[in-house]
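Deviation from plan, reported transparently: S-adenosyl-L-homocysteine complex.
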Amino acid sequence: MLDRIRIVLIGTSHPGNIGGTARAMHNMGLSDLALVAPRCEPLTADTVSRASGADHVVHAARRVETLEEAVTDCTLVVGASARSRTLPWPMTTPRALAESLPAELAESAARVALVFGREDSGLSNSELQRCHAHVTIPANPDFSSLNLATAVQVLAYECRLAWLAREEMGDEAPSEAPRPEPLANHQELEHYFAHLERTLITIGFYDPARPRQLMARLRRLILRSRPERMELNILRGILTATEQETHRRSEP
Ligand code: SAH
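Because the crystal trials were delayed, the predicted structure below was used instead.
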């Protein structure tokens, strides 16, 4: 289970936080790290010093330019955020999230990404809207923003506790039957959203000049429903048929 949980850091500006994250991950048995557009050199003396022997996690980390690339194969993407946003999104706590992971990861193709934001500005609205849910560490409301590596530590610890609980149950652990149909992954969902947006513009339902959070609301609806790949293919088929019919009617 732990090998299918990816920690994603976006726009990190302090190498020490990358080292601290590597240490937190290795302590808790996680190894899959992705660095999205870091705003510092990820491997410095500071990184190695804060990693205290876990810098191999940083050496092995994938470095990419966008969140999409970091989570393309993930079937569940959860953004860590201390702040609530204007458009409410499904919220969870570290414990509830971790306890859901054994079932979430029952299928071998399932992958979970935990996404962390910049030290100065956190995650952008657009990044948060690419997540299925948001996880908030219930800290002091008057001082709720943790250090980046510390936030990773809290989530990684909860993942480990949930994994240990499952291990201790041994044969008595409830057996999670794999889903009959696989869930759509991030890339498939993003292709669907792009197709949906194009079609809504074509049929005149959506005007990007007056967005009114329409696409964000549709994203929230679809992401909340956790569609299977097969279901998403049906929805894309409807869009294709709509585009073809619109094209046919517009021909002289
Ligand atoms: N100043 C930023 C917070 C940066 S802390 C802001 O106001 O948004 C860096 C990252 O650590 C955050 O983007 C988030 O991913 C994580 N983090 C910090 N405190 C958190 C909390 N209480 N709950 C969940 N994630 C938290």
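Strands lie at 5-10, 32-36, 62-64, 76-80, 91-92, 112-116, 133-135. We consider this an acceptable substitute for the interim report.
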